[in-house]
Each structure stands twice: as C-alpha cells, then as structure tokens.
Amino acid sequence: MSKTTTTKSLVGRVRNFYNPNAWDTEPARETQSYLHGIRGLLAISSILWIFFHTFVPTLTAVSAGSPPDGPKYEKVIRDVFSPIFWNYSLISSFFFILSARSICVRFINDPKPASFAGSIIRRLVRLPIAVGLASGIASAVMKGMGTEYIQTFRNALPNSSIDVPQIPYDAVAALNSMFELFWVVRSYYFQAANHFWPSGTIWNLSLMYQQSWTVYFLMLILPYSRASWHIQFLGLFAAGSFWMNTWGWYDAIALLLTDYVINPKLSPQLHAGIKINEHVTIPMVMPGALMTAAGLAMKYVWTLFPQFINEELVLHPYIDLSETTDKNSFAAADPYPRLDNFLFIFGFLLLVETTAVLRSALSANWLVALGKRSLSLFVAQSLVFWAGGIKLFLHLTSSGADTATANAAVFFVCTAGTLIGGEIYYRTVDLPSQWVANWAYRWLTQ
C-alpha cells in the first residue's frame, strides 16, 4: 500500500469519527425519524423545565400540596402553559414510552434470534458506558466545585423545591452508585446516583433500563403467536399490571402500538380504523384525539387542584388490598405510571402514526438531530444549569442585577451551553458507546 493511500485512509477514519452517521448502528429500515423528532421536542421541553424548576419554581410547582407563592402572572403562566410545555411527569413518561416503543422495532422487523440478542446486548453495553460516565462526571464536578453555593442559591432565591446534591465520600461510593443504577429495581428516587446527580433526575434512565426487560420478554412471544390474538395477550398483561400499578401497562401498550405499526397483518387495521358495522368506521384519529384531550384535561385539573394530584391511585385496587403500603406512601416511595400521562401520550402517538402530515413535520432534520442527542442534552443540561447557571445567577445578583435580568442571562447562556455541551458529549461519549455496543454484539455472536 502506498504512502498516499495510507494517508487517505487515515484522513477518512478521522472524518468518520466526527461524522455521526458513521457511528449509526441501526439500518435505515429500522429507524423511524419522527420518533426522533418527538424526542427532539421533549429535549426542548426538558430544557425549559430544568430552567423554570431551578430558577422560577412557581412556574413548575405541580405536585401534592400547595405550590410556592409568586407573582400572579407567574401563576397564570404556570396554569396555562406548564401542563403541556414543561411538565416533568409528562416529559419523563413520554421518554419512557418512546424507549419501550423503539427497542422492539429491530426484532419485530426481523424476528430472528440474532436480532433479539442484538437488542439486549447493545443496550447492556451502551447504557452503562454512557450513563455511568455521565454519573461519574457529575460526581467529579460537584466534588470539585463543592455544593455550598447551591445551598446559598436555594436560600437566596428562595427555592425549596430543589435539593442540594450529595457528594460521594470516595471513589468506591461513586462506583457503587453507578452499579446501583442498573441493578436496583425500586426506590428510584432514593438511589445514591440520584442523590449525587444535579437536579435529581437520573432515576429516569434507571427506570427505563429496568423496564426494558419487560418489553424484551413480551416481544419474544409476538412473532410466534397469532397476530389476531396479540391485542388480547398484551391487553390482559396490561390489565394485570394496571391493577398492580406497575409500569408494565405502559410497556405492553407501547409494544402493541409498535406491533400494529410494523406487523403487515395488523397495520391495515390501524389505518382502516375501528369498524362498527358495514357502513360505519371510526378512523383512529378520533380515539387518538379524544385520548389526548382527556389526558390534557386531567393535567389542567391537577394543575389547578394540586392537592388531588395522586387521587387517581384509587383506580388501582392493589394498593388498597396491600398490607404494606397505602396511597400516600406509594406515591412518595417511587414514580408511578399515571393515567393522565398515558392518555395524552398514547393519544398523541395514535394521531402521529395515522397522520402523514404529523409524521412529516416531526421528521424535520433539526428535530431529528435534537432527538438523537436527547440523552446527551439530558446529561449536559443538569451540569450546565446547576454548575454554571447557579454560579452565574449568584454573580449577577451580587453585582446588583435584579432577578429577572439574572434569569434571562442564565437562560440564554445556559441554553447555548447545553447545546454545545450536549454536542460534545454526543460525539465523545454517546456515539462511541453505540459503536462499542455494536462491536461487542458482533464479537459475542460472530
């Protein structure tokens, strides 16, 4: 091989390293760009949420009990816009359902043992690398900077809705916290890694990972059973998990939706609608719109009456029959799948899956690009807003700036910092972790 050829090969490898498409481990036929587009919208919402939750808590205080006091206009903005545009419960549940909706696509498209093994092995390798490194970076940053400034900010704003992150006392504790993310299946709020994480939101990734095993178990059955019985099978499983109020009913319905979108025997039924009789057929956009409206209406009710936000637990009889818990302790102990989120999210997905215009709009390149970086943006936003944003706020207010001016500066600077930091993490950690996961799968199976 000539020197020129060797040089060109090296340059090509360098270019590929900085080309995200070169790291893509999913064939084009297995990706659905509009799902990435939805993730892109959620990434924008999550940036809005972390800013408001940290710096303007009145705008996001939708929880049991009385929301913090604030100017009347902030309360109006919260009541009108927060249920849909920066609702933390809705954002986290939407990401959860999209995860369940997506991880089964490869196997349902190509129901072979290799596809099934690949879906599991890739996630087993990728998430511990990407999330473990993120947790380690966050712990190192908090240990290096200290957390006294966060307590100062918490008292000065004031904002009692945020907690000061803890610092691991040694490297072993930090390592154990990363390990715990992928093994503990309960008390997600109280995991050590969640206490170490700025904003206390890394439990979402732990929950997604743990619940993915439910999808893996259920999806293995579908290709080898009658398509006409899939709705009964998954519906029965969903009903049982709804009784117990576990996350299985989210998983089962997400899998059923994927099945109806991909399975050639079921897909025509999704687009044909619900047949009432020979002359009347209800298009699927109608139940989709009704579900979306019902879920949104419930969101507004809980926003106006936050003291009743957990009252929907009366729909889950298991909680009343259990001798070890009650509704209040159940709601406080762990995140739980909410009915209002379920109705809104699956109603919206029904609209998207049956409406070409929506799928086209959600497939916009900039939304898809944001969606592919959603994990990296999640990592970046907590570090940027909590490490840099709070410091900037304290500096500006101590220099004489009013709260509104300081908040505006924090929002624009930290949003830009989140986009830049997310891109850096995406290219240096997330994409390489996908490549390593794909390499590990090939090494183990070929």
UniProtKB/TrEMBL annotation:
Question: Span of the secretion signal?
Answer: none
Keyword field: Membrane, Transmembrane, Transmembrane helix
Record field: transmembrane? 41-64, 84-104, 124-146, 166-189, 201-222, 242-262, 282-302, 342-362, 374-394, 406-426
Domain of life, per UniProt, equals Eukaryota
Designated name of the protein: Acyltransferase 3 domain-containing protein
